[in-house]
Specification:
The chain is an alpha+beta fold. It is 41% helix and 13% strand.
Length: 655
């Protein structure tokens, strides 16, 4: 009887889903076109919720199967897209007279390039001054790069001492349920640490980064490590060379700790990987960390490293930075040379505990790499030279003009908006000017971004979708399926709107209005809670994803640099209770013109002057520069990473 009831229920459900699909198949064009009265460049702020299934667990698996593994899948996916009015983008695209824009590479005029080159020549790198100029070293509640460097220079710690503690803390976190790394090779880490020990002992340290731990998102190659790109462990590929970013940190003396967990292919900004069972937020085991550079963000927030590398195709540096209480800088498209150049959306950048650390990391990885694809794409001159001029000019901000789109800014959780507005008031008190701005068609531009990024994701996972389908997470299957559904014409429509947005922002906002940075909350909500089912099979939640990406997608669509700055915390509410939950971080987002990272870093440093001393460490935290009761001196025989402490290290959560 039970089996009969189940079978009838199942086929009844299939029929209920199939009948509407049959209607669309017979009566609705594959790609409809309903001309609208939208006029390019006109209209105020507009936002709409997406109509799409929200599911986790078995329901998500069932939806993914229907959409991607059945004959009805293609027209069901098309029905979902049609229901969200993507055809309206064609009305706007028809009014764009310029050709589609594929790469959002901004080429400066001759005078602009000369001015930037002169500023770079006049600017003394922070890598040379940060250690001796204590005015740059602010209290931010976390260990910074200069903290490590000063300990090593004074002989109070050695890189090997720290490496032993870090490796031990990684194991402790995993025992407590926080998994951060895909691969850490202890023998390799200790070998790097011993080499740094020797340089420091001989007085030949390579600079402020010598002996400092750096973690890398599982997206680029680390010599003698595997790259998994967030995919199932059986899909990982061994690498015998270093990505240019990794090599540059090695050249600076940094210790490459290992590869950090990311969501599969970077498909979701929520941050949790069902494949690798992590990570949750460092601030709460019940909340998402933000992604897709989730492991990199949590590694920094938890105190294991002061710097980690992320990649950002739809906020994947800036969203986890905001949700983890960190600085996160996603550079201009093409600024930071790396081996992952197949996407027109993705940029690289650092996640750090302070603006100074972000600037130091930027100086390491941003210089032009001659012969690299980005350099050749820009032109014969190579990329504009990076610099950090005026980084420490933070008391007088009267030359800063901050673009403020009021309706957009306040379309967020009032607690988040109020905290970010207070930060803007602090900048105004130092002379910064708020400039009212308006950006037309934000809703439609967000849809254009989703078209481009999902189609690129589908191309990148085409083989896996057809030959390793069962290894993909359910949400990845849905995303690849959607990306495969776009027509060539629709992708060109998205690129036409990219052209419009590129020209409007560069000419009107950053040009005519001379805006230094557009300011908004990084995300419009508090970090969302994570259900137990999501830990097993992931979560598909397009409305939430749109909410998380509402303020940051323009940076990827148009190739602009963006920086998320930690500005405070809000206590979350506990569902079904009057009590308050954990403190969750809030970030302010700065979106600048192409090649203006130095200006964003200056604003971020000014905000560290305001908020740095009020930063709160998370519940998952290890101070690896604080010795145990008895650490002892390191010798090569101590390569066991159990440590030398007397008794167990007290967990911050226990405190």
């Amino acid at each position: 009887i039970t089996m009969f009831a189940f079978k009838n229920f199942f086929w009844g459900l299939v029929l209920a889903l199939a009948l509407p699909g049959l209607y669309f198949l017979v009566f609705v064009p594959d790609v409809p076109f309903h001309p609208t009265s939208i006029t390019l460049g006109e209209g105020g702020y507009e936002t709409r919720l997406l109509t799409a299934p929200v599911a986790t667990g078995p329901m998500l698996e069932a939806i993914a199967y229907l959409l991607t593994a059945t004959r009805a899948g293609p027209f069901l996916r098309r029905a979902v897209l049609n229901a969200n009015g993507f055809d309206s983008l064609r009305t706007l695209a028809e009014q764009v007279s310029d050709p589609p824009l594929y790469f959002p590479m901004r080429r400066l005029s001759a005078s602009q390039f000369t001015e930037m080159s002169e500023d770079a020549e006049k600017s003394t790198p922070l890598l040379e001054t940060a250690l001796r100029d204590e005015s740059l070293q602010l209290e931010v509640g976390f260990r910074t790069v200069t903290d490590y460097a000063k300990q090593y220079a004074a002989g109070l710690q050695t890189p090997s001492d720290v490496a032993v503690r870090v490796l031990s803390e990684i194991k402790r976190f995993e025992e407590e349920g926080l998994r951060i790394f895909v691969e850490v090779r202890e023998d390799d880490v200790m070998a790097q640490a011993r080499a740094s020990d020797a340089r420091h002992k001989a007085g030949k340290a390579l600079g402020v980064f010598d002996g400092v731990m750096v973690a890398v998102k599982d997206m680029i190659s680390i010599k003698n490590h595997s790259v998994c790109n967030g995919q199932h462990p059986t899909s990982c590929q061994a690498k015998n060379d270093d990505d240019p970013i990794v090599q540059r940190f090695r050249d600076a003396g940094a210790i490459i700790l290992g590869s950090t967990i990311m969501t599969e292919g970077g498909v979701t900004p929520l941050g949790y990987s069902a494949h690798y069972q992590g990570p949750c937020s460092a601030y709460s085991p019940f909340h998402y960390s933000g992604g897709s550079s989730s492991g990199s963000a949590v590694a920094v927030a938890a105190g294991l490293v002061p710097v980690a590398i992320g990649f950002d195709g739809g906020g994947s540096i800036r969203i986890p930075a905001s949700m983890s209480g960190l600085h996160g800088l996603g550079g201009t498209f093409g600024r930071i040379a790396n081996s992952h150049t197949t996407s027109t959306m993705i940029k690289a950048g650092p996640l750090t505990t302070s603006a100074l650390d972000a600037a130091l990391a930027y100086e390491v990885i941003a210089p032009n790499l001659e012969g690299h694809f980005y350099s050749e794409l820009y032109g014969s001159s190579g990329l504009p030279p990076p610099h950090t001029k005026d980084f420490d000019r933070v008391q007088d901000l009267s030359d800063l003009r901050l673009g403020f789109f009021e309706e957009w800014f306040f379309d967020s959780d009032p607690r988040v908006a109020d905290m970010c507005r207070q930060s803007l008031a602090a900048l105004e008190a130092r002379g910064a000017v708020l400039v009212p701005i308006s950006i037309p068609h934000l809703h439609w531009l967000a849809l254009a971004h989703s078209m481009k990024i999902s189609s690129e994701f589908a191309l990148g996972f085409d083989y896996e979708y057809h030959h390793e389908f069962e290894l993909l997470e359910a949400n990845s299957k849905v995303t690849v399926g959607i990306g495969k559904t776009w027509t060539a014409m629709e992708v060109l429509v998205a690129e036409k709107l990219r052209r419009y947005a590129f020209d409007y922002l560069t000419k009107e906002i950053f040009g005519a209005l001379e805006v230094t940075a557009i300011v908004n909350p990084t995300i419009g909500v508090l970090p969302p809670r994570m259900s137990p089912a999501a830990k097993v099979s992931g979560e598909s939640n397009s409305p939430l994803v749109v909410e998380l990406m509402k303020y940051i997608f323009l940076g990827n669509l148009v190739g602009l640099p963006g920086h998320s700055v930690p500005v405070g915390y809000v206590a979350d509410s506990v569902p079904g209770s009057n009590s308050t939950g954990p403190l969750l971080p809030v970030g302010l987002h700065l979106l600048g013109d192409h090649w203006s990272e130095h200006k964003l870093l200056r604003v971020a440093h000014a905000l560290d002057h305001v908020h740095g001393a009020k930063r709160v460490r998370p519940v998952f935290f290890a101070d690896v520069l604080q010795p145990r009761k008895r650490i002892g001196s390191y010798t090569p025989e101590d390569d066991s990473v159990e440590g030398e402490g007397e008794g167990e290290l007290i967990s911050p959560r226990m405190l």
